[in-house]
Each structure stands twice: as C-alpha cells, then as structure tokens.
Specification:
With 151 residues, the protein is an all-alpha fold. The chain is built from four helices and no strands.
Length: 151
C-alpha cells in the first residue's frame, strides 16, 4: 500500500499545490437584484398558471425546516426523531446481528478442533503410560528404507 501511495503521491501533491497556489478572487460588491439565485421569499407571487391544481408551489424543505434530515419535510420534531430512530436501529441491528453472525461462524482453520484433539491424545498417552512426545515423528518400524545394495 505504501509503495502505491509513493508512486501516486507526486501527482496528488501537484494537484493540491496547484489549487492552493492559485489566487482567490472574492467580490466585495453587493449583488444586484438581477444577479445570483433567487430565493422563494425574494420572488413575487407566483402566477396561477405556474401553480398546481391545489394552488401549491414548490417549496425548498430547508426553508420550512432548516435542520432537515430527509425524513419529514414539514415537522422538524418528527424529522429529528425519525432520523434518530433510523440511525439507532440501523446501527444497532448492524452491530448486534453482525456480531452474532460473526460469533457463530464455524471454527476458522479448525483451531478449536486441533486443541481438543491434542488434549484427547495427551489424556490417552498419559493413561497408557507413554511419553507425551516421542523423539521420532514417524514410527521407525513402518519406514521402508532402500537396501544399501540398490544404489
């Protein structure tokens, strides 16, 4: 990962530096009435031809609810509580169900099985009076060696 970052870092740093070195022009003159975006409160009353069949016009939800979270357009209290409930239950479900799923996954790499098997073999060898480990990994009598005359 670090090698990839070192390869692309010159490009990234040039992009950041070129934007930071540019001049920043900010206008200090007040906007005229013709310039800039109009807000619904700045507009004149809408003609009946632009209204829908019920006499409603399009209203920005941020004007009626400045802390709009996307759950309820008109009531900020309902909007905030719906947002809290959605995030609480969404995150809780992800953590609880996700944690439960991970906990009950099968034994990865069979580590627990290998430990149980080793403990079983130790108890068996102790009961038979054998050493826990022998110096030979394989049983020497079962190894077939070539005779010295076959070379």
């Amino acid at each position: 990962m670090a090698s990839r970052l070192s390869r692309i870092w010159p490009v990234v740093s040039r992009v950041r530096l070129s934007s930071a070195l540019g001049t920043r022009c900010v206008s200090q003159t007040p906007k005229s009435s013709a310039a800039g975006a109009a807000v619904a409160s700045d507009l004149q009353p809408v003609s009946p031809a632009l209204q829908d069949s019920h006499g409603h016009t399009e209203v920005n939800p941020f004007e009626t609810n400045p802390d709009f979270h996307g759950f309820h357009h008109h009531d900020s209290f309902v909007d905030e509580w719906n947002m809290r409930l959605a995030f609480f239950f969404g995150i809780s479900v992800a953590i609880v169900i996700g944690g439960t799923f991970i906990h009950y996954l099968p034994d990865h790499g069979m580590r627990q099985w290998a430990r149980r098997e080793a403990e079983r073999l130790i108890k068996q060898r102790e009961a038979e009076g054998l050493p826990l480990m022998t110096e030979n990994y394989y049983e020497p009598s079962k190894i077939l060696l070539p005779s010295s005359g076959d070379e």
